[in-house]
Amino acid sequence: MRLKFLDKLSQTLEKKTEKGQPLHRFWALWDAIDTFAFTPKEVTTKGSHIRDTVDMKRVMITVIIALFPALLFGIWNIGYQHFLSIQTSVSFWGALWYGFLKWLPLVIVVYVSGLLVEIIFAQIRGHQVAEGFFVTGFILPLILPPDIPLWIVAIATMFAVLFGKEVFGGTGYNFLNPALIARAFIFFAYPSVISGDKVWIAEKADAFSGATPLSDIANNHLSALPSTMDMLVGTISGSIGETSKIAILLGAAVLLFTQVANWKIMLSVVAGGFLSALTFNILGGTPMAEVPAYQQLLMGGFLFGAVFMATDPVTAAHTQWGKVIYGFLIGVFAILIRDYNKGYPEGMMLAILLMNIFAPLIDYCVVQVNIKRRMKRVKIVK
Amino acid sequence: MINDTSKKRQVFTIRKGLDLALKGVAVEKTQRLECSTVALSPDDFRWITPKLVVQEGDCVKVGTPLFVSKTDERLRFVSPVSGTVQKIVRGEKRKIERIVVNNDQQYLSEHIENEIDATPSTIKTQLLKYGLWAFVRQRPFAIIAQPDETPKSIFVSGFDSAPLAPNYAYIIKNQLSELQEGLRILSLLTPGKTFFCLPDDCELDLSSLPKNVESRYFSGPHPSGNVGTQIHYIDPINKGEKVWYVELQNVVTIGKLFLHKKLDFSKTIALCGEGALQPMYYTIVNGGNIASIAQNSLKRPIRIISGNVLTGKVIDTDGFIGFYDQQLTLIPEGGERELIGWLLPNFKKWSLSHTFLSFLTPHKKYSFNAQLHGGKRAFMLTDVYEKVFPFDILPLQLMKACIIQDIDLMEQLGIYEVTDEDFALCDVVCPSKTECQSIIYEGLRFLYNN
Question: Which of A152, A237, B10, B96 could connect to A200 by a Cys-Cys bridge, CB 3.0–4.6 Å?
Fold first, then answer.
């Protein structure tokens, strides 16, 4: 499938953006657009002569495909929740359209502000623009409330890309999940727009309770807790992408089937969360700790974080056993924070960021075990 | 990992690895190819600095040294044919690229002493004298073995599991007595054992192996036939230890010298790959010119690889087969662009990941070209290497240790057990297009120089 004029345009622009040419300062931008349109033509010059067809673009697009069920449901749910709160009935398409108009500006702002920073850095470094941000930029709107002011989103995105990623060398060198840095930035800098009962439903009528299940429980409104079924399907209030557990599980299936995400991390997060929730069920002490373990897993961003954010291969632990430990501790900390820290009803974001920081330490320990095993072999031989 | 299928057979099953299904398997038919010229390239011998001992126009015989190693002049690199030195090709800074010898097709040999008493020192002297020592390489580093050292064991891999690799059982089925002799001679060089590694479904009848030579069996995907993998499973190398290894056909060459008192540097190579018009076997003198078989290839532009697609070296259409290479692979060069290729479902392109729909047809043979299929990125998908790397070594961490040139860490993580070819499959599957082989090569080189 080739279009000749595109070919020609590509060749002309490629020449004009070469080093020393007038348009060289736009090389990174041009290269990003060009490799987006056509697969690169480079051939191997050293090492193995043949290579896997997969590249990071393909990996990233697979993650985005996996996010689609959660996105589509989330968009519909924005509309559904809004019309529910003003008590007007609306068609399926009406709700979807309303939600789409809420989501679109968010995603545009995120991409424009984030890519701006990315492209500037790629140009300065002479690197190609890494695809990582396509996923970051796609995930970020999904973990925000629908009515969040766009300027805050823009600042948070730029902050996350700049200080979460580029200062460390760009995609692949960052040790914290950039989307979570953006969310944490908003959480701590502008807490009123991302917590409380008011923000989770777009243009909510004042009379309607917009509390998420988590804040309901944290405030001792146990009776207001939605049914397990509602939490599973996702017709509840919350961040755009996190509400429907079924949609998230569909995404998980895509990620696991294509082997893009590591199943060990996903499974161990869920296991860690479930086991610690069970333990806290016994210990008790706070209203949250008494919520059954299986419901804990369905609340808030736990599952979304487990599937899409804990599995980020760059910020997770890099060794196989490290991934298991890393995932398990995310689950434990997420529930621990949720159950015993009233200030933060949603523990997943902080748990993942915390374990991002500890991932290199976990890896170090696993590597030392490997080294010790090898050293033992020497003794046996001698 | 070890299954005892019978009392005698010890089978090692390799679970991690990859068999790449390329088009163009050589059919089992052999033709002799007379080459008008042969060439010896110092680059084929890792980290050997050549010192020329012939000039253009000199007459040489089979076994006449063309160059020796500057650091150890006992290491001779000899002419595989008789004739005259046609040309000494030099590159930048007068580096010797290759020494081309005109083949008079007489195969007149240097005089071979008749009484060959098989003690370790006489064997070494003989091998060094007739230039056969270059066949004996060592791990770590994959360099030519030091004649003064004694290895803890010697390995001969009886099969090649690389893509489109020649079937050794077919090649040596008529040379079994030479093989036995070669193995016997090699086994005298070590106080330890000599391991002869064979595929689990071995077709060869090796009922009587020489004393001290033990057979071991391997099953599973590539790199089960790589000697590095076999050493790792049977007799892993610790710091300070040396293991020697010789390619199967070169064992036969050694066997011929001691059995028939004859210097015969011919070997059988597989002409293979999608670009080859008639993929089949050719018996060719080592270092022989391959122009006549490479020129009539199917696809243009073509990439001619001396060796396999994982570790081979690109050569010209009138190039020469590499000293250690057993196959000549012709694949299309590629370089075409595809509109939004990252989004298309793509049934036609192979990938280890399941991100392309081609995973639905795992047994299909695919057309591979030399395209990189992406841009270079930092390490991102960190667990992809471990799927194809059968060692008890952490590949990513070892590569990082090589990049930061931390010798202690490299040693601890097992650098002595590997060489670049063991990371060839990591090259293939990495979505960040990391040059894993180069990283390991540079790491080894740094270690060697220190």
Answer: A237
**What pLDDT, on the 0 to 100 scale, is given for residue B212?**
85
Task: Give the span between the Cα atoms of A285 and A280, in whole angstroms.
Answer: 8
Express each pLDDT in B133-184 by its tens digit.
999 999 999 999 999 999 999 999 999 999 999 999 999 888 999 999 999 9
Cα distances from A125 to residues A42, A129, B352, in angstroms, run: 20, 10, 31
Tens-place pLDDT, residues A45-70: 889 999 998 888 889 999 999 999 99
Chain A hits for B341, CB-CB cut-off 8 Å, are 38-39
| Closest in A50, A259, A316 to B309, CB measured | A50
| Structure ipTM | 0.90
Residue with tokens 């990315």: A118
Contacts of B432 in chain A (CB under 8 A): 55-56, 172
Q: Do A51 and B394 touch (CB under 8 A)?
A: no
For residue A28, the chain B residues in CB contact (below 8 A) are: none
pLDDT tens-place string over residues A96-142: 999 999 999 999 999 999 999 988 888 888 887 878 888 999 999 99
Chain B residues touching A171 at Cβ < 8 A:
377-378, 380
A311-324 burial, b if ≥16 CB within 10 A, otherwise e? Answer: bbbbbbbbbebbbb
Q: How far apart are CA A213 and CA A211, in angstroms?
A: 6
Top-confidence residue, A276 or B115 = A276
CB–CB contact B377 A319 (8 Å): no
Which chain B residue lies closest to A57 (C-alpha atoms)?
B342
Interface mutation target, options B16, B193, B337, chain A, most CBs of A under 10 Å: B337
Report the C-alpha gap between B69 and B53 in whole angstroms: 10
B203: left (phi over 0), alpha (psi -120 to 50) or beta: alpha
Nearest CA in chain A to B334: A43
Mean pLDDT of chain B: 89
Helix axes B395-403, B436-449, angle to 10 degrees: 50
CB-CB contact of B245 with B137 (8 Å): yes
From the CB of residue B320, how many other CB atoms can be counted at a distance below 10 Å? Answer: 25
Question: What span, in angstroms and rounded, lies between the C-alpha atoms of B218 and B159?
Answer: 10
Q: How far apart are CA B222 and CA B390, in angstroms?
A: 9
Average pLDDT for A294-303: 89
In the 8-state DSSP scheme, what is residue B160? -
Instruction: Give B21-71 pLDDT, tens digit per residue.
Output: 899 999 999 999 999 999 999 999 999 999 999 999 999 999 999 999 999
Show Cβ contacts of residue A116 under 8 Å, excluding neighbours closer than 6 positions: A158
Nearest neighbour of A258 by CB, restricted to B354, B370, B382: B354
Residue type, B210: P
**Are A67 and B388 within 8 A, CB to CB?**
no
CA B189 to chain CA centroid, Å, is 22
Residue A31: pLDDT band with limits 50, 70, 90: confident
CB contact under 8 A, A51 and B433: yes
Q: What is the four-CA torsion angle of A75, A81, A87, A93, rounded to 10 degrees?
A: 20
For residue A59, the chain B residue with the least C-alpha distance is B355
Place of tokens 């110092």: B42
What would the mean pLDDT of A197-221 be, rounded to a whole number? 71
Cβ-Cβ contacts under 8 Å, B430 against chain A: 51-52
